[in-house]
Write a structure and sequence with these properties.
Blueprint: E1 3-8, H1 19-30, E2 35-40, E3 58-61, E4 64-67, H2 69-79, H3 88-119, H4 127-138, H5 142-145, H6 149-159, H7 161-169, H8 180-195, H9 206-220
Parallel strand pairs: 1-2
Antiparallel strand pairs: 1-3, 3-4
The structure holds glutathione.
Glutathione binds near residues 19, 55, 56, 57 and 68.
Length: about 240
């Protein structure tokens, strides 16, 4: 029975943009596993209630359902060991640092940069929920969360310094081959790539070259990801 992945979709059902789902799709390709995708929107909570989760990714493997990308990655290494994603306990400990750094440092910077583009590409049924949940999270109106790219793009690029230093001296954060740590950071960049025309990385940057290598991995799987076009109803709040 193939695996089933609930995957966050934009206004265009084919455009999949969750950074957390991207890291799992890259992990599934890494393992050579096949899966079926169920497009999911923020307000489709009922569709994943069976999993006990309110967020995606949700992965169904036979009679098991799993949520939370970290739990899923550990499950994949346990049940489909080769090739390893996390590289055992030591690799897992290091990947945990990358995960927490990526989510606490990169995600907020990216969200602020792409927010207007992201909002213009959400499915209409998600707009009210997205606005109210993010305004509650940040404690201010959506329009005040977004940042000005002329100042925040350099700050974002500067934040990538640790990745830049590593991928100047080796192809991937995982060494010669990509690991889950690579997919975590890559997932964040793929979120922006699918939902915004803003070019977060400069050509010539070692991080750009590393991202290109990952776009080409697994037969160019991520490079083929559909890019979301804005909705044609710009008047929507
Ligand atoms: N810790 C979770 C976070 C997953 C997450 O936040 N997913 C977002 C999509 S990018 C989501 O489903 N959000 C639902 C919501 O905001 O209600 C993981 O690693 O899987």
């Amino acid at each position: 029975m193939p695996l089933v992945l609930y995957d966050l979709a934009g206004a265009d059902e084919e455009a999949r943009f969750s950074p957390y789902c991207w890291r799992i799709k890259m992990a599934l390709r890494h393992k050579g596993l096949a899966w079926r995708e169920v497009p999911w929107r923020f307000t489709d909570k009922d569709a994943i209630v069976f999993s006990g989760s309110k967020t995606v990714p949700v992965l169904v493997d036979g009679t098991r359902s799993l949520s939370d990308s970290w739990t899923i990655a550990r499950y994949l290494d346990e049940h489909y060991p080769e090739p390893s994603l996390l590289g055992g306990p030591l690799g897992e400990a290091h990947a945990l640092f990358i995960r927490l750094w990526s989510e606490s440092t990169l995600h907020p910077l990216i969200l602020r940069l792409i927010l207007p583009d992201l909002y213009a590409r959400l499915h209409p049924k998600d707009l009210d929920y997205f606005r109210s949940s993010r305004e509650a999270r940040f404690g201010k109106p959506l329009e005040q969360i977004a940042s000005e790219p002329s100042t925040s793009l350099p700050a974002f690029r500067a934040a990538l310094a640790p990745v830049r230093s590593v991928v100047r001296s080796q192809p991937y954060l995982g060494g010669a081959r990509p690991s889950f740590a690579d997919y975590i950071v890559f997932g964040a960049l793929q979120w922006a790539r699918v939902m915004s025309p803003l070019e977060l990385l400069e050509p010539g940057d070692a991080v750009h070259a590393w991202r290109d290598r990952l776009l080409g991995e697994h037969d160019g799987y991520a490079a083929r990801a559909p890019i979301c076009q804005p909705r044609l109803d710009p008047s929507a709040r």
